[in-house]
């Protein structure tokens, strides 16, 4: 019996290590649901020539393509089956409610970033959403705030750095974060791990904390099954489609994060 228990313990630790690696790789498919359906990754505009000042800086394209190929293999053979199996266990409504809870928990961080970006109206909206959905939405299960006119708005630390004038830098495809830039590495880390203290308080140890974070990411991915495959099927070059889709999302976020007077100056 003791040997069986030790074997089971070693087996579970191996499984956990595999899932931990999967968690890191989940960052590479984050682009698929980062825009919450607001970005069309198959838009023909992706392939239109852009002004030289807005051209993609990808000096390490060869290395980035190699990482992308590895991420693609890991997604198709590890992450996608994992998320598909998970989606078969829970109905979409329940998975959507779980995603709502984690989204609601991140509203205070969005409010902080909105404040740092001098978006005072959005800061008030985000704080109101958090209060209303936490109380009236039973911890964020529902979104009664939207019904009252407090619509979702995004405010990330990547946007904050952009707002402060920190340049994008070169494009990078990394195993942990997927498509990113030199500037966004730090911004993404701040946003992604802003809930780490909450996860740790919920869990008995760091392993459970990581498992909670991984569950959140798998749940999000399960709500967007098939999106990545569509990008691959409809794109001549999936790497370029993902890279340009990332930059389109960055441009949209930049437009919402820049102070109003700066936008007005650029439109003249």
Structure description:
The structure is a single chain. This protein has 14 helices and two strands. By secondary structure, the protein is mainly α. The chain has one domain. A hairpin with a 3-residue loop joins strand 1 and strand 2. The protein is globular. Residues 11-39, 46-53 and 260-268 have low confidence and may be disordered. Keywords: Lipoprotein, Signal. Pfam families: MlaA (PF04333). InterPro entries: MlaA.
Bulk shape: globular
Q: Tally the helices: what do you get? A: 14
Strand content: under 5%
How is the largest sheet built, in terms of strand order? Answer: 1-2
What's the mean pLDDT score?
77
Number of domains: 1
Q: Low-confidence segments, ≥5 residues, pLDDT <50?
A: 11-39, 46-53, 260-268
